[in-house]
Design a protein that fits this description.
This protein is α+β, with helices and mostly antiparallel strands. It has helices spanning about 20-35, 65-80, 85-110, 115-120, and strands spanning about 10, 125, 140-145, 150-155, 160-170, 180-185, 190, 200-210, 220-225. β3 and β4 (about 150-155) form a beta hairpin.
Length: about 220
């Protein structure tokens, strides 16, 4: 025994209380993080559709991608429907959250002593240490054009951050920062709407810790398409 105590990390489960749009985007981050990730070779819920066994109910989604799509479709339907469609959307949300929870427990079982490994999964981490400390300054890893009219910001996850805030600035607009949204995870922060052909400067910060939030990240500029 050398007296060294290994740190224990837990997956942050606060995504279950996030708004529908954030749950949807968070799911995309988890799928991105786990796809091809050698640290997590056998997720309990498949990431992509799998062949349906003979005699199985082909209408019941069993993978994260299909559960996410069913949730997205239910959200769209509920926008123009009544109580039954809202109930169907809530049912689809619960099915997706159940799959995410199972996946979170799998990630935690393998990465409970390795923070970098845990964060690579797309999930956020919550420390078992209840003593609060200031959040470190985060870093933007990339800003990319994934869909026209949107910017996808990939940021560094922070231990003990329970959410993230982003801001944008457009040159010639008074050099003032505008709020661009609150996000459950840092790996996929969607900034929208943005105007194609316009260059946006982006920054973000973590929310939590003893000071309430981290410093803002160094800004990164990118032209929207």
């Amino acid at each position: 025994m050398n007296g060294t105590t290994m740190k224990n990390y837990k997956v942050y489960l606060g995504f279950a209380q996030a708004p529908d749009a954030e749950v949807d985007e968070f799911t995309s981050g988890v799928i991105d993080g786990l796809t091809g990730n050698p640290a997590f070779p056998s997720p309990p819920v498949p990431l992509k559709p799998v062949p349906v066994a003979k005699g199985a109910d082909a209408q019941t989604p069993t993978d994260l991608t299909s559960l996410q799509l069913a949730f997205e479709n239910a959200i769209s339907a509920a926008l123009h429907g009544g109580t039954p469609l809202t109930a169907a959307k809530n049912t689809a949300r619960e099915a997706l959250l159940d799959a995410l929870h199972k996946t979170a427990m799998y990630v935690q079982s393998l990465a409970r002593h390795d923070l970098a490994m845990l964060l690579s999964s797309g999930f956020e981490a919550a420390s078992t240490n209840r003593a609060q400390s200031p959040l470190p300054k985060p870093a933007i890893q990339a800003v990319v054009n994934e869909i026209s009219g949107q910017l996808l910001v990939r940021g560094e996850s922070l231990l003990n951050a329970h959410s993230y805030q982003a801001q944008t600035m457009v040159a010639g607009n008074g050099n003032t920062w505008a709020d661009a949204g609150d996000f459950t995870g840092a790996r996929r922060m969607i900034i929208q709407p943005v105007t194609p052909g316009t260059t946006y400067t982006v920054r973000y910060r973590g929310v939590g810790g003893s000071t309430g939030h981290s410093e803002w990240s160094d800004p990164v500029s990118h032209m929207a398409t």
